[in-house]
Every structure is written in structure tokens, then in C-alpha cells.
Amino acid sequence: MNALTGAFDWLGAGKNWRGDAGIQHRLIEHLGFTGLSMLVACLIALPVALWLGHLGKGGALAVNISNVGRAIPTLALLALLSLTPLRQHGETPTLIALVLFAIPPVLTNAYIGMREADRAVVEAARGMGMSGGQVFLRVELPLAFPLLMTGIRSAAVQTVATATLAAIPGGGGLGRVITAGFNLQNTSQVVAGALLVALLALLVEGLLVLIGRWADPMRRRRTAGKGTEPDGATSGGTGTGAGGGTETPGGTGAGAEPAAAAA
Predict the structure, then answer these.
(1) What is the C-alpha separation between 77 and 37, in angstroms, rounded?
(2) Which strand (E) or helix (H) includes residue 20?
(3) What residues pair up with 246 in beta bridges, in sequence order?
(4) Long-range CB contacts (within 8 A, 24+) of 215-224
(5) What is the pLDDT of residues 153-177, one digit of tens each?
(6) Please, what is the angle between helix 187-215 and helix 23-55, to 10°?
(7) Helix, strand or coil for residue 246?
(8) DSSP letter at 254?
(9) What is the rounded CA–CA span in Å between residue 26 and residue 89?
(10) Is the pTM here over 0.85, yes or no?
(11) 103 near 43, Cβ under 8 Å?
């Protein structure tokens, strides 16, 4: 409990937020290479997954190959990249490791989302004369969007947490707050760094959930559908008769023939 209280005291000290080693600078670094690695991972994984999912061919092989990356520890990959000439290019080893770490969940979820799109709806769209591109953009992609966003959200949260490993070979980010705390044997600083990473991961996930709900094309269609009432809907105890008149409590409509005419 003392360590947690000390962590909040450490976070509340203004001096710990300023300078090149301050929280503000480390947070910007962390967001920078996390965001860049996610952007590159999406640019690589999404086109491949969506295209293979649309074709229905080769996707299983691509997913299995990408999942091999999950078996390689990110720390080990980062250490190996740091031993190559890439270490002379700043955060490049960290970016490569994070991109390879983020690709599997993005690719897998996007591909599965495309393949699990309701085949009856897809075939109906083709039967209506839609081209392949129209089916992809107007049917398959909207149906796959929720699972696609789930993959991106999962990858982003994992990348935010894993990016702390960049501090081990001397990189930047919030991991430097934690490693500096270990070096100084300052438990409060270590806990403070861990709290910052956890809070950032939660904020990123919450933001992506909101973006996913706002951008979901199916949600917009459902909302538009709820605002449309069936034609001829009526309310209350009175209604419109078959002849176009309004029924009275006695059941005679203005458009009905008088009873005497029937006699």
C-alpha cells in the first residue's frame, strides 16, 4: 500500500513531468512508436486479409503464417534486432518488433470477419447484379467491420503494453520510467510507470470502442431503419375504414354504404 501511495506522490510531483526524461516526453515517445507500428501493421495486414477473405482462397495459410509470429517472444525478437545494424537507426528495431507483434490479431480477425459474413446476404447481393467491388464495399466489409475493429483494438492494447520493452535495449517510451525506477531501486517510480502504461492501454481501448461504434456502417443502417414506420400505421381506438373514412364507435365508416341501401 505504501508503494501505491508513493506512486501517486511521484506522479503528482511536477519535476517528474518535465524534461527529456519526464513523463510527458516519455508519453509522447510511447504514443509515437505505438501509433506508427499500428499504422504499418494495419497497412500490411488489412489489405491482405480483406482481399483473401473476399476471394475465399489462401486465407487460412496467411493466418497460420502470421500466427507463427505469436510463438516468437517479442523480447527475444527485439534483442535479436538490436544486435543487427538496425540498432544504429534509433527506434527501428522496436518498430519492426511491434509491427510483427501487431499483424497477427489484425489479419486474423479481419479475415474471419470477411469469411463469416452471412453468405445468404452476399449471394443475394450478387443475385441483384452487384459487381464484386460493390459486394465487397457494401455488403462484406460492413458485416465484417465489428470483428475487424476487435482485431485492431486487441492489437493496439497489446502493443501499448508491449512497447514498454523498448526501454530494455535503450529505447524510449514509458518503459524508461519503469527501468529507471529499477535502477534507482525506487519502487514507487516502478509502480507509477506501470500505472501509466495500464491507464494508457485502457484509454486507447476506450477510444477505439467509441470509434468503432461511431464508424460502424451497420449501426447507421439500423438507426435509419428504426426511424421508418410502416405505411398506414394507426394508433388509438379509431382507425381508417376500407373506404377511406374514419370509423365511428358504432362501426360505420364514412365510406360505407348506409344500412337502408342494403335493404
Answers:
(1) 15
(2) none
(3) 240
(4) 215/145, 215/149, 216/142, 216/145, 216/146, 216/149, 217/141, 217/142, 217/145, 218/142, 218/143, 218/145, 218/146, 221/142
(5) 999 999 999 999 888 777 788 999 9
(6) 40
(7) strand
(8) T
(9) 19
(10) no
(11) no
